[in-house]
Amino acid sequence: MMADETNTVVEGVVAEVAAAAPEGGEREGGRGRGRGRGGNDRGGNDRGGRGGRRDDRRGGRGGDDDGGEELIEKLVHINRVSKTVKGGKRFGFAALVVVGDGKGRVGFGHGKAREVPEAITKATASAKKKMVRVPLKDGRTLHHDGKGRFGAGKVNLRSAPAGTGIIAGGPMRAVFESLGVADVVTKSVGTSNPYNMIRATFDALTDQTSPKSVAQRRGKKVADLLGRGGASVAEAEAAADAITE
Hints:
The protein is an alpha+beta fold and about 240 residues long. It has three domains: about 1-65; about 70-205, Double Stranded RNA Binding Domain (2-Layer Sandwich); about 210-240, no CATH class. Helix content is about 50%, strand content about 25%. The chain has helices at about 1-65, 115-130, 170-180, 195-205, 210-220, 220-225, 235-240, and strands at about 70-85, 90-100, 105-115, 130-135, 145-150, 155-160, 165, 185-190. Strands 1-2-3-4 form a four-stranded antiparallel beta sheet. It has a four-stranded mixed beta sheet with strand order 5-6-8-7. Strand 1 (about 70-85) and strand 2 form a beta hairpin. The longest helix has about 60 residues, at about 1-65.
């Protein structure tokens, strides 16, 4: 009887294990799939989190550089681009954006994406990171004439008296309006490519210098530099005091 009872118990346990095995396997498989999905979700969340942190850092730097000021953003050019892949072409958009604070700082950037708003966002972020400072005379025009070149594009920049306005083409006009220049005369020679025109314009703007920077570099006073053109000492000192940049 003891042997029969033992066999009966063993058979019952085996039957329970056999019956429970599929459920356990399904649960393990479910946990495995859950872990896989969870891993993917966590990976996606981590990537999203890192992307969010990068965006926050960009925003933080932009906020520090901008000093909390409102920036002027101008969309210069939108171009549809395509990439040939297996099975056809993949279309996207390229945006060229100019950003400035209207007080002597300006930058440009370009970005590509499948959608226009995302391309503009990328271009704007790139422009904010590459802003440069340009000295302005009386806060309205350039201190001196300049020339810039990039590729086949050539530009000539000339300072102008008050009331002249911005005499410039489309891409160059966007740069000067964002920069805060109110009076300037420009001429573009060669290419009409907006990318090359803007790069040539920035090449000319980066060569701009102010009397204060020149005097400091040469170890002289601003009045000494301004008085070399035949102006009197009083006129030179008055002109030096009137220079704000």
